[in-house]
C-alpha cells in the first residue's frame, strides 16, 4: 500500500459551495467523500471477521496472528485521514469565501436599505397627498350622491304625480261620464258594464263616489250662500246620484251572482263576489245578506221543529228533565250547523270574523231567543199557578235548565269563533229580565211549597178525624193524629227545597255580593218554615196538655158527695190522668223531633250555606238562625212547664187518693210495724218511672238537666205540702223515712245533685218522728239549715201536745 499523501492525491475531492445550498445533509456530504474508499474493503472486513477465530484483536484495531504478528484491520484509515484533512482545509477556504460574500452582501443591503428608506419617505408624502385627494373625492361623491338621491326623489315624486295625474285624468273622464245627465247610465265606458272587470269597476266607482261626496260637502261648507253652493256643485251632485245608482245596481248584481253561486256551492265564485262586495260599506250588506239567507232563519218550520223537539206534546208540563234533554239535542244541532257555516265563511269572506259575529248574534237573538220565550213564560206573583200544575217551582226549574244549557251553547259558539262578539255576555242579556226578579220568585216558590204542604197535612188530619166517626172529644185528645205531630221527614223536605233553591242562587248569581244576598234571603225562608212548623207542632202538643188539664179540672169533686158520684168521678179522673200521660208522651216526642230538626238545620247551614257567605253576612245569618231556634226553644219551654204541671197534678191525685191516714199512724194492735213503702209512694214512683221514660229519651244535655231539676224541686215541694196533712207516730216516722228513701232512690236517676241533697235532708228531718222528745234538740246540731222545715215536722208528731213540745220548739227556734 502506498503513502497516505499519494493515496489522497489520487482520490477525487469535490467540495463546492453548491453542496451547502438547499436541503443540506451532513450524512450525504460525508458519504460522498468516503464511499469511493470504503467499498474496496467491505469484503475484506467480512473475511477478517470470519477468520478472526483464534486471533486476538488489539485495542488499536490490529489482529495478532498465530505467530503473534500484528496485521491492520482497516488499511484505508490513512487515506481517510488525508482526505479529512484536505476536506477541512477546503472547508476553511470555503468559509472564507462565504464570509467575503456575506460582507459584500451586507454592504449592498445597507445601500439598498438606505435607498428603500428614502423611497418610503417619498411614498409617505405621496400617500398623504393621495389620502387628501381621496377625502376630497369622497366629499364630492357624497355631495353628488345626495344630489342624485334628491333627483331620484323628485323623479319618484314626479312619477307618482304623473301616475296620480294619469289616474286623476282617467277618474275625471269617468266622472264626466257619470255627470252627463241624471239617471243616464247607458253612455258609460265598457269598464262599467264588462262582467270580467267588475272588481276594477267597483274600485273606481267607490273612488269617484268618495271624491264627489267629499267635494260636494266641502263646497257646501265654504260657500257663503245656499245658492252659491248649489251653483258650484250642481254637476257633482248629478255625478253623486248616478254613482249611487250605479253602485246600488252593481252591488245588487254581485249579490245575485253570490246567491246563485251559493246555491251551487261554488265557493270560488262566492269568494270573488265577497271580495268585491267588501268595497261597499266594508262588505256589511254581503255579510248580512248571507246570514239572513241561511235556512234556519227563513224557514218557519225550523221554529216549529225546535219547539216540538224541546217541549214535545206535553208543553211545559213535560218537566224540567225532559226539557233539558230536548234543549241539549237542539243546541247540539245548532252548534253543528254553525260549525259547518263557519267552514264556508272561512273559505268565502275576506273578513270571516265579522261574518261569524253576525251569524252567532242572529242565532242567539232569533233562534235561541224564540225558544226561550216559549219556555220562560213568567207567571204572576199575584195569582200563583197551582201546585198540582207545577207551581212557581216548575218555572224556576225550567229557568235554571234553560240558563245552564244556553250558557253551555254560548261557550261552544265562542270556541268555534264569533269575532269580537261576546257570546256569553249576549246570552246573559237574554235572561236579564228573569234574573232581576229571580229572588222574589224563589222566595214566593218556597212559601207556596210550604203552604201547600201545610194544607196537605191539614187535609190528612181532617180525613183521619172524619174516619174516626163519633169518637168522643176526650178520646180524640188522648190520641192526636199522626199528621198533626212534628215529622223530621217533613223538615228534611223543607231543607231539600232550600238546597235546590240555593243551587239556583249559585247558578244565577255571578257576583259574590249578589250571591250572598240571595243565599241569605233563601235561607231565611227555611228558617221561617222550620220555626213556624216546629212552633206550630209544639203548640198543638201543648193543646193536648191543656185539654188534659181541663179534663182534670172538670172532674174535681167536693168531699160531701155520694159514693156513686165519687166512683164516677174517680173513673173520670183516671181517664183524665191517662189523657195527661198520653199528652205528656206526645209532647216529649215533639220535643225530641224538634231537637233532631234543629240539628238538621244547623248541619245544613254548616255544610251548604256558610261557605257561600262573607263574614258579615255569615254573622247576620247565624243571628237569624239563633233567633229562629230560640222561638222554638221558647215554645218547648212552655210545654215542658206544662208537662211538669201535668206530672205533679197526677202525683197530687195519686197521693190524695192512695195515701191513708193510718199509713203513718199504725194502729196499736200489737202487730210488727210495716217497713215497706206506702202504697201511695209505690204508685207515685211507678207513675214517675213510666211517664218520665219518654222524657229521658227525648231530652238531652242542658234541656234534660233543667227539666229534671225543675221537676225534682216541684216534687220535693209537693211531698212536703202533702205530708203536712198527716200526723206521725214513731212507727209512722219509720215508714215515712222508708218512703223518702224510695223517692230518693228514684230521684238519683235525675243526675241532679241539688235535688239529691234535698231528699237526703228530708230523710234526716224524718228522724223528728222517731227520736224521743228530749233528743230533738241535738238532732239538728250538724244541719242548722233545715231547722225551719224540721220545726214544721215536729208539729206533726202525734205526741206534740202530750209531750208539751211547743215550749221546746220555741226554744229550739230561738237558738237558730
Automatic annotation (TrEMBL):
Region (Disordered): 658-677
A Pfam family reported for this protein in Swiss-Prot or TrEMBL: Sec10_N
Protein known as: Exocyst complex component Sec10
Alphabetic keyword roster: Coiled coil, Exocytosis, Transport
Domain Exocyst complex component Sec10 N-terminal: from-to ranges: 79-194
Domain named Exocyst complex component Sec10-like alpha-helical bundle: residues: 200-809
Superkingdom classification of source: Eukaryota
A GO biological process held by the record: exocytosis
Family: Belongs to the SEC10 family.
One of the record's GO cellular component terms: exocyst
Residues annotated as transmembrane: none
Listed InterPro entries: Sec10-like (IPR009976), Sec10_HB (IPR048627), Sec10_N (IPR048625)
Amino acid at each position: 500500500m502506498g503513502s497516505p499523501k499519494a493515496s489522497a492525491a489520487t482520490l477525487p475531492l469535490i467540495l463546492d459551495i453548491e453542496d451547502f445550498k438547499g436541503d443540506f445533509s451532513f450524512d450525504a456530504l460525508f458519504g460522498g467523500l468516503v464511499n469511493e474508499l470504503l467499498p474496496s474493503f467491505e469484503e475484506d472486513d467480512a473475511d477478517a471477521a470470519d477468520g478472526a477465530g483464534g486471533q486476538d484483536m488489539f485495542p488499536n484495531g490490529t489482529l495478532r496472528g498465530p505467530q503473534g504478528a500484528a496485521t491492520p484491520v482497516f488499511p484505508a484509515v490513512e487515506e481517510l485521514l488525508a482526505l479529512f484533512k484536505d476536506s477541512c482545509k477546503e472547508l476553511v477556504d470555503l468559509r472564507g469565501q462565504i464570509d467575503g460574500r456575506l460582507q459584500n452582501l451586507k454592504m449592498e443591503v445597507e445601500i439598498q436599505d438606505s435607498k428603500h428608506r428614502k423611497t418610503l419617505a417619498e411614498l409617505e408624502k405621496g400617500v398623504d397627498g393621495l389620502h387628501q385627494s381621496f377625502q376630497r373625492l369622497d366629499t364630492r361623491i357624497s355631495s353628488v350622491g345626495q344630489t342624485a338621491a334628491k333627483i331620484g326623489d323628485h323623479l319618484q315624486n314626479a312619477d307618482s304625480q304623473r301616475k296620480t295625474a294619469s289616474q286623476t285624468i282617467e277618474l275625471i273622464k269617468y266622472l264626466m261620464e257619470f255627470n252627463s245627465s241624471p239617471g243616464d247610465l247607458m253612455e258609460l265606458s265598457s269598464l262599467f258594464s264588462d262582467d270580467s272587470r267588475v272588481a276594477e269597476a267597483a274600485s273606481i266607482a267607490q273612488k269617484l263616489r268618495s271624491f264627489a261626496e267629499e267635494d260636494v260637502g266641502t263646497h257646501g261648507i265654504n260657500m257663503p250662500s245656499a245658492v252659491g253652493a248649489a251653483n258650484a256643485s250642481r254637476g257633482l251632485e248629478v255625478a253623486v246620484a248616478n254613482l249611487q245608482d250605479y253602485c246600488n245596481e252593481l252591488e245588487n248584481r254581485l249579490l245575485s251572482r253570490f246567491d246563485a253561486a251559493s246555491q251551487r256551492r261554488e265557493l270560488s265564485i262566492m269568494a270573488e263576489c265577497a271580495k268585491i262586495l267588501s268595497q261597499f260599506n266594508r262588505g256589511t250588506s254581503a255579510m248580512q245578506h248571507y246570514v239572513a239567507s241561511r235556512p234556519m232563519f227563513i224557514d218557519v218550520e225550523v221554529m216549529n221543529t225546535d219547539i216540538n223537539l224541546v217541549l214535545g206534546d206535553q208543553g211545559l208540563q213535560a218537566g224540567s228533565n225532559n226539557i233539558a234533554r230536548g234543549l241539549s239535542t237542539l243546541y247540539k244541532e245548532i252548534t253543528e250547523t254553525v260549525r259547518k257555516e263557519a267552514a264556508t265563511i272561512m273559505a268565502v269572506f275576506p273578513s270571516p270574523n265579522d261574518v261569524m259575529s253576525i251569524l252567532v248574534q242572529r242565532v242567539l237573538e232569533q233562534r235561541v231567543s224564540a225558544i226561550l220565550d216559549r219556555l220562560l213564560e213568567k207567571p204572576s206573583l199575584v195569582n200563583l199557578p197551582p201546585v198540582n200544575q207545577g207551581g212557581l217551582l216548575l218555572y224556576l226549574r225550567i229557568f235554571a235548565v234553560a240558563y245552564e244549557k244556553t250558557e253551555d251553547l254560548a261557550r261552544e259558539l265562542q270556541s268555534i269563533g264569533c269575532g269580537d262578539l261576546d257570546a256569553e255576555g249576549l246570552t246573559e242579556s237574554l235572561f236579564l229580565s228573569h234574573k232581576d226578579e229571580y229572588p222574589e220568585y224563589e222566595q214566593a216558590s218556597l212559601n207556596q211549597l210550604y203552604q201547600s204542604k201545610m194544607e196537605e197535612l191539614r187535609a190528612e188530619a181532617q180525613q183521619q178525624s172524619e174516619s174516626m166517626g163519633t169518637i168522643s172529644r176526650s178520646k180524640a185528645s188522648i190520641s192526636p193524629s199522626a199528621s198533626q205531630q212534628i215529622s223530621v221527614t217533613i223538615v228534611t223536605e223543607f231543607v231539600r227545597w232550600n238546597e235546590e233553591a240555593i243551587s239556583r242562587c249559585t247558578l244565577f248569581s255571578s257576583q259574590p255580593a249578589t250571591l250572598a244576598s240571595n243565599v241569605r234571603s233563601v235561607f231565611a225562608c227555611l228558617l221561617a218554615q222550620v220555626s213556624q212548623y216546629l212552633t206550630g207542632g209544639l203548640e198543638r202538643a201543648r193543646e193536648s196538655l191543656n185539654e188534659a188539664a181541663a179534663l182534670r179540672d172538670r172532674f174535681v169533686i167536693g168531699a160531701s158527695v155520694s159514693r156513686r158520684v165519687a166512683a164516677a168521678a174517680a173513673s173520670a179522673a183516671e181517664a183524665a190522668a191517662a189523657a195527661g200521660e198520653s199528652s205528656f208522651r206526645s209532647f216529649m216526642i215533639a220535643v225530641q223531633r224538634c231537637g233532631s230538626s234543629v240539628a238538621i238545620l244547623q248541619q245544613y247551614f254548616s255544610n251548604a250555606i256558610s261557605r257561600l257567605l262573607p263574614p258579615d253576612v255569615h254573622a247576620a245569618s247565624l243571628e237569624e238562625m239563633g233567633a229562629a231556634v230560640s222561638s222554638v226553644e221558647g215554645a218547648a219551654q212552655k210545654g215542658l212547664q206544662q208537662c211538669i204541671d201535668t206530672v205533679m197534678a197526677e202525683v197530687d191525685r195519686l197521693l190524695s187518693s192512695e195515701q191513708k191516714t193510718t199509713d203513718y199512724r199504725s194502729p196499736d194492735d200489737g202487730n210488727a210495724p210495716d217497713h215497706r213503702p206506702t202504697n201511695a209512694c209505690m204508685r207515685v214512683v211507678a207513675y214517675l218511672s213510666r211517664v218520665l221514660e219518654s222524657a229521658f229519651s227525648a231530652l238531652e244535655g242542658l234541656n234534660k238537666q233543667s227539666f229534671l231539676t225543675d221537676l225534682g224541686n216541684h216534687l220535693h215541694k209537693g211531698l212536703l205540702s202533702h205530708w203536712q196533712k198527716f200526723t206521725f207516730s214513731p212507727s209512722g216516722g219509720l215508714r215515712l223515712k222508708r218512703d223518702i228513701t224510695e223517692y230518693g232512690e228514684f230521684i238519683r236517676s235525675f243526675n241532679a245533685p241539688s235535688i239529691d241533697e234535698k231528699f237526703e235532708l228530708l230523710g234526716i228531718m224524718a228522724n223528728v218522728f222517731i227520736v224521743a222528745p228530749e233528743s230533738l234538740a241535738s238532732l239538728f246540731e250538724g244541719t242548722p239549715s233545715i231547722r225551719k222545715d224540721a220545726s214544721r215536722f215536729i208539729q206533726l208528731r202525734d205526741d206534740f201536745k202530750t209531750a208539751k213540745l211547743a215550749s221546746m220548739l220555741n226554744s229550739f227556734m230561738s237558738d237558730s
